[in-house]
Amino acid sequence: MTALATGTGGVGSCFISQLTWLSKNLPSTRLSLCYISMIDKALYRPDYAEIDFDTALFTLEATGVEPPPISTIVEYLAAAPHNVILVDNTSAISLAEAYPAFLRRGISIITPNKKAFSGSYQLWQEIFSSATSGGSYFYHESSVGAGLPIISTLKDLVQTGDEITRIEGVFSGTMSHLFNKFAPTSGSGGKWSNIVREAKELGFTEPDPRDDLNGLDVARKLTILGRLAGLPIESPASFPVESLIPAALENVANADEFLRSLSKYDNEMEEKKLAAERSGKVVRFVGSVDMLGKKAKVGLEWVDQTNPIANLKGSDNIISFYTKRYGDMPLSIRGAGAGGPVTAMGVTGDLLKVLCQLR
Ligand SMILES: NC(=O)C1=CN([C@@H]2O[C@H](COP(=O)(O)OP(=O)(O)OC[C@H]3O[C@@H](n4cnc5c(N)ncnc54)[C@H](OP(=O)(O)O)[C@@H]3O)[C@@H](O)[C@H]2O)C=CC1
Ligand SMILES: N[C@@H](CC=O)C(=O)O
Ligand code: NA
């Protein structure tokens, strides 16, 4: 059995550590690594020789070569003498769009990358049909709520005949961290731009934090959950999404320049916070999918100080499923929704699920 890993950042490096742990503590998994890459370096051998887990990242950095095109990677893996699982720990759209090509060739996929599952509805359908025709599997638990059991719970609800009426909550570790620190229910909050930088340093944000602040990351998660619950959402751009990017910074060239300039616009967020406080509320970044009304939305809401959403800590997500069976009291899941170790846990957990099915 072989795992192929791409992406060696916050999540990818924790995933490699967890592979090392598995190989020592669950040797019956008999996993090996035959390909590992970052953006501009890849490590692999024509004879699929095992790459040592302990030294993989160092060897990749020191001796990696230019990665081959994705079509070559598909061929390389399809010709492997054993089952192969692609573990995509990147946020690359190019790789996400190639999932059907991997799945059709019998290569299973595990990923925290939201891009494929929240891309066009056509890509979503192709992923399902390609897995069926290739006899392969795909799991993406960490694409929503990091390692929290959100997708597996939703699938269980749907596959046992419950009907989802509404999904709502805080779906972003970054946004949770920002608002818990910027507009706490007691005491005064910190400076918006400083907390944004801190969220990036803690590994909560997307590679480009603007993808969190513009609401797109939450919109992608709602697209995934809405589709799994039975709503054919066309794309994350097909419903209202509020962006927290100051208008004057919408076109800055890159994330570094954006972060450098953000403090000039701290007063815009300060005003939003004070408006909520004047009504005795706190401001939070909330998302919802109304399955009955066939609508989704993402944006700022004023919530009561006693609302569980107002009282999250750290990078906590809280995601509530309202269903026919659960009635007025939703099934709610809460816990850290971002960060390398917890996200990699969801990826490694998915890997174990695929291994059970490939045996
Ligand atoms: N961080 C978190 O808390 C969570 C992250 N996720 C998702 O996990 C994924 C990874 O996030 P994170 O680890 O934080 O991001 P990082 O920016 O830390 O790491 C991304 C990695 O992907 C590599 N990469 C990018 N494009 C390619 C490519 N085309 N081919 C090969 N490698 C590539 C980068 O290479 P290089 O090192 O050369 O730049 C880097 O190693 C994202 O999809 C994110 O949305 C999901 C839930 C939570
Ligand atoms: N940037 C995302 C990472 C997890 O999906 C977040 O902050 O939630
Ligand atoms: Na999850």
From TrEMBL:
<protein>
    <recommendedName>
        <fullName>Homoserine dehydrogenase</fullName>
        <ecNumber>1.1.1.3</ecNumber>
    </recommendedName>
</protein>
<dbReference type="Pfam" id="PF00742">
    <property type="entry name" value="Homoserine_dh"/>
</dbReference>
<feature type="domain" description="Aspartate/homoserine dehydrogenase NAD-binding">
    <location>
        <begin position="7"/>
        <end position="141"/>
    </location>
</feature>
<dbReference type="GO" id="GO:0050661">
    <property type="term" value="F:NADP binding"/>
</dbReference>
<dbReference type="InterPro" id="IPR022697">
    <property type="entry name" value="HDH_short"/>
</dbReference>
<feature type="binding site">
    <location>
        <position position="206"/>
    </location>
    <ligand>
        <name>L-homoserine</name>
    </ligand>
</feature>
<dbReference type="InterPro" id="IPR005106">
    <property type="entry name" value="Asp/hSer_DH_NAD-bd"/>
</dbReference>
<dbReference type="Pfam" id="PF03447">
    <property type="entry name" value="NAD_binding_3"/>
</dbReference>
<keyword id="KW-0560">Oxidoreductase</keyword>
<keyword id="KW-0791">Threonine biosynthesis</keyword>
<feature type="binding site">
    <location>
        <position position="114"/>
    </location>
    <ligand>
        <name>NADPH</name>
    </ligand>
</feature>
<dbReference type="InterPro" id="IPR019811">
    <property type="entry name" value="HDH_CS"/>
</dbReference>
<keyword id="KW-0028">Amino-acid biosynthesis</keyword>
<dbReference type="GO" id="GO:0009090">
    <property type="term" value="P:homoserine biosynthetic process"/>
</dbReference>
<dbReference type="InterPro" id="IPR001342">
    <property type="entry name" value="HDH_cat"/>
</dbReference>
<feature type="binding site">
    <location>
        <begin position="7"/>
        <end position="12"/>
    </location>
    <ligand>
        <name>NADP(+)</name>
    </ligand>
</feature>
<comment type="similarity">
    <text>Belongs to the homoserine dehydrogenase family.</text>
</comment>
<comment type="pathway">
    <text>Amino-acid biosynthesis; L-threonine biosynthesis; L-threonine from L-aspartate: step 3/5.</text>
</comment>
<dbReference type="GO" id="GO:0009086">
    <property type="term" value="P:methionine biosynthetic process"/>
</dbReference>
<feature type="binding site">
    <location>
        <position position="90"/>
    </location>
    <ligand>
        <name>NADPH</name>
    </ligand>
</feature>
<dbReference type="GO" id="GO:0009088">
    <property type="term" value="P:threonine biosynthetic process"/>
</dbReference>
<dbReference type="InterPro" id="IPR036291">
    <property type="entry name" value="NAD(P)-bd_dom_sf"/>
</dbReference>
<feature type="domain" description="Homoserine dehydrogenase catalytic">
    <location>
        <begin position="149"/>
        <end position="352"/>
    </location>
</feature>
<keyword id="KW-0486">Methionine biosynthesis</keyword>
<comment type="pathway">
    <text>Amino-acid biosynthesis; L-methionine biosynthesis via de novo pathway; L-homoserine from L-aspartate: step 3/3.</text>
</comment>
<dbReference type="GO" id="GO:0004412">
    <property type="term" value="F:homoserine dehydrogenase activity"/>
</dbReference>
<keyword id="KW-0521">NADP</keyword>
<comment type="function">
    <text>Catalyzes the conversion of L-aspartate-beta-semialdehyde (L-Asa) to L-homoserine (L-Hse), the third step in the biosynthesis of amino acids that derive from aspartate (the aspartate family of amino acids), including methioinine and threonine, the latter of which is a precursor to isoleucine; production of homoserine leads to a branch-point in the pathway as it can either be O-phosphorylated for processing to threonine, or O-acylated for processing to methionine.</text>
</comment>
<dbReference type="InterPro" id="IPR011147">
    <property type="entry name" value="Bifunc_Aspkin/hSer_DH"/>
</dbReference>
<feature type="active site" description="Proton donor">
    <location>
        <position position="221"/>
    </location>
</feature>
